[in-house]
Specification:
The relative contact order is 0.24. A 3-stranded antiparallel β-sheet has the order 1-3-2, with no helix packed on it. With 70 residues, the chain is an alpha+beta fold. A hairpin with a 4-residue loop joins strand 2 and strand 3.
Length: 70
């Protein structure tokens, strides 16, 4: 048990992702290879959002971790 809560990434755009993060107090978002299509540019790092700070990437798992800024 990690004592960490989690939520499913919504199948929608970045603004919806941030709405969910705000509603549930989510501090980090992990996007993996099977991310929703609407988040493809965020996963690829080809767009930025002022409330999302890239923390780390994992090439072997094709994952990207973002910190959610409040």
């Amino acid at each position: 048990d990690t004592e960490r809560s989690s939520a499913v990434v919504p199948n929608d755009d970045v603004e919806t992702l941030l709405d969910v993060a705000d509603r549930y107090g989510i501090d980090y978002v992990l996007l993996e290879a099977d991310h929703p299509a609407q988040l493809a540019d965020l996963h690829a790092g080809t767009i930025d959002h002022p409330r999302l700070q890239m923390v780390r990437t994992w090439s072997e798992r094709n994952g990207v971790l973002y910190a959610v800024e409040r």
